[in-house]
Amino acid sequence: MITLALILLPLYFLVFELYLRLAKRWNITDVPNHRSSHSKVTVRGGGIIFVVGAITAFVLGYIGIWPLLGLIISALAGFVDDIQPLPRRLRLMAHFIGLAILLWGGGLLTLPWWILMVIFIAFTGWVNAFNFMDGINGITAFYALVLLGTFYWMSELEAFREFILIMGLSVLVFTFYNARKKAVAFAGDVGSISMAFVIGFLLLELMFFTGDLYYILFVAVYGIDAVITILIRLWQKENIFRPHRRHLYQYMANELQIPHLKVAGIYAISQFLINFSVIFWFHGLELTLLKTMIILLFLALLYVAVRFLVRQKILSNK
């Protein structure tokens, strides 16, 4: 795998450089507005390198055709949306079709209807949550590296280790261009959606292999932030589908002016600590669904407390 990495890394850098030139020529860029956390025109859609990574893994025989097709359909809708706004219903339809192909290829569409409904709602919600969280430099890159590293460690996913490693290489290349004070490129919808699909796919594989639902804690940081932010916006009678700057990381980066990479690091380290605890501590506690929900509730309360303190700090600075 070291030899493969030495071949793929420079190849991915070449692909990324080519995309940068094409994106600038075709004006696939992100122009800052009043909701943005950046101040200069930046190439959008750099996360297409994740799709290239998945295609590489398929060509080398490390992933099947069905997960790849599901990812490509979901990512394609994201890429179109990066170029010009795509109706919300079409984006959601692409996510559902992509997931349906993934489940059909894995022979899971025969599951009871209520289980399928839960999977479709949870998976689609996760993809959109991951997309919502892609708002500052480094956050998608660092968070994805933590999750891919976690999945690589799990012996239950040994059959996917080469795939995970290849995806990790694509994320490292993206990190080089994105995890900067002034990013060269953003992941765009194509990147956040494709990476969310990969993570969701690996999480489903892990849960079905072990039968343990507590692995949902592996994505707790993004999940809690997204869900609580949505609940707050609903409480305040806002349109949750409109862009906003209400996530905790946005308050920290925009209002408190904490450097993007520091905020991204806080999120990534927080998820790393949770995953470390799940693997080396919680794993031996035989976590039931009830215990998992209690842990999630504790983490949610901790998040609310931090959010409250940040909001108080913002108000005191005005």
UniProtKB/TrEMBL annotation:
Protein topology in the membrane: Multi-pass membrane protein
InterPro entries: Glycosyl_transferase_4
Residue ranges crossing the lipid bilayer per the database entry: 47-80, 136-154, 160-177, 184-208, 214-235, 264-283, 289-310
Pfam families named in the record: Glycos_transf_4 (PF00953)
Molecular function in Gene Ontology: transferase activity
Protein's cellular compartments: Cell membrane
Claim: Transmembrane is one of the keywords in the record: yes
Keywords noted in UniProt: Cell membrane, Membrane, Transferase, Transmembrane, Transmembrane helix
Protein's name according to its UniProt entry: UDP-GlcNAc--UDP-phosphate GlcNAc-1-phosphate transferase
Organism: Fontibacter flavus
